[in-house]
Amino acid sequence: MADPQDSYEYKYFNVTFPSEHVAHVEINRPEKLNAFVEVMWQNLSKIFTRLSTNPTIRAILLTGAGPRAFTSGLDVVAASQGGTFDHNDNSQDVARRAVALRRHAIEFQACITAVEKCEKPVIALLHGLAYGLAIDIALAADIRLCTNTTQMSVREVDIGIAADIGTLSRLPHAVGSLSWAKEVCLTGRVFGADEALRVGLVSGVGKDKGEAVEMGLQMAEVIAAKSPVAVVGTKEILNYSKDRTVEEGLRYTAVWNSAMLQTEDIKSAMLSGLQKTTPKFSKL
Questions:
Q1: Partners of 129 in beta bridges
Q2: Dist CA 30 CA 37 (whole Å)
Q3: pLDDT value of residue 77
Q4: Digits of tens for pLDDT over the chain (284 positions)?
Q5: What is the pTM of this model?
Q6: Residue of 1, 25, 157, 240 with fewest CB within 10 Å of its CB?
Q7: CA nearest 280: which of 21, 2, 16?
Q8: What is the DSSP string of the chain?
Q9: Are 175 and 201 in contact (CB under 8 A)?
Q10: What would you report as the CA-atom Rg of the chain, rounded to the nearest whole angstrom?
Q11: Can you name the residues that pair with 124 across neighbouring β-strands?
Q12: CA angle (136 as vertex; 134, 138 as ends), nearest 5
């Protein structure tokens, strides 16, 4: 099994291991609708960086605590009090303040990108409110689910900024309509599960959070039962290929598999198929 739960103690997060090879990461600030303060995005990065190389973990489910929100986004009150949106410090000239803000944005982006860079597949379950940063995080995940009542919004235009943590870069690749992506980003309007499913933002919808969590855990267990070599390779090649030509993707796949095809997992998987047994794979 995974490391003991108490070794994954991070403020505003619960990390549990509900079944073999599966981790459940829960954003845990429900009294504030799971809104993010700086320590939260830093801890999100730490958690997914650790789980990425944890040899017993093969799939991860990401949810928010409580019934009301996956996350309502950035805690703008905290950010405006000596944080990102505090413009009362005039001790530096514009260029120097710009450099500091750029560094801050890049650090923030890297923390969310840690979800995407995690070697293990990540399933994000959007429930309740899923605004702003919620979309950034979900788009960094590999698979997205939601509930019938989830309310989603690319909210940043309503607080006077262009979304800068990933949505504007990832959303056009995740859905089937660039027009739709631009519309929801420019208007900041709320949309629901049916619309998200129609455009391909999510791939499954549960009637409520409980059903959707069960759906996500079952999916994670299916993935975790596969060869970890095959799963890690599949995620790596899909992510590499999405922004490149087919030819580039094929060449990368050939190089990747020149090593990975030598795994003992292939023999185990093939024999289990012939013998109608459940294969057992070594840690990765």
A1: 69, 151
A2: 13
A3: 85
A4: 445 455 899 999 999 999 999 999 999 999 999 999 999 999 999 999 999 999 999 999 999 999 999 999 999 888 777 655 555 666 778 898 889 889 989 999 999 999 999 999 999 999 999 999 999 999 999 999 999 999 999 999 998 999 989 999 999 999 999 999 999 999 999 999 999 999 999 999 999 999 999 999 999 999 999 999 999 999 999 999 998 999 999 999 999 999 999 999 998 888 887 788 888 899 99
A5: 0.92
A6: 1
A7: 21
A8: --S-GGGG-BTTEEEEEEETTEEEEEE--GGGTT-B-HHHHHHHHHHHHHHHH-TT--EEEEEESSSSEEE--B-HHHHHTTSTT-----SS-HHHHHHHHHHHHHHHHHHHHHHHH-SS-EEEEE-BEEETHHHHHHHHSSEEEEETT-EEE--GGGGTS---SSHHHHHHHHSS-HHHHHHHHHH---B-HHHHHHHTS-SEEESSHHHHHHHHHHHHHHHHTS-HHHHHHHHHHHHHHTTS-HHHHHHHHHHHHHHHTT-THHHHHHHHHHHT--------
A9: yes
A10: 20
A11: 62, 144
A12: 65
Distance CA 3, CA 36 (A): 26
Q: Which two three-digit tokens encode residue 4? A: 């003991």
Nearest 5°: the CA angle 32, 12, 24 is 110
Q: Give the CB-side neighbour count of residue 169, counting CA atoms within 13 A.
A: 11
Look up tokens 């750029």; give the residue: 102
Total residues belonging to the chain: 284
Q: Edge-to-edge, what's the strand order for the sheet holding 59-64?
A: 13-19, 22-27, 59-64, 122-126, 143-147, 204-206
Write down all domains in the chain, each with its CATH number in brackets: 5-224 (3.90.226.10), 228-275 (1.10.12.10)
pLDDT for 83 equals 57
Tell me the two tokens of residue 231: 């799963």
d(CA 229, CA 245): 24
pLDDT of residue 271: 83
Q: Is 13 left (phi over 0), alpha (psi -120 to 50) or beta?
A: beta
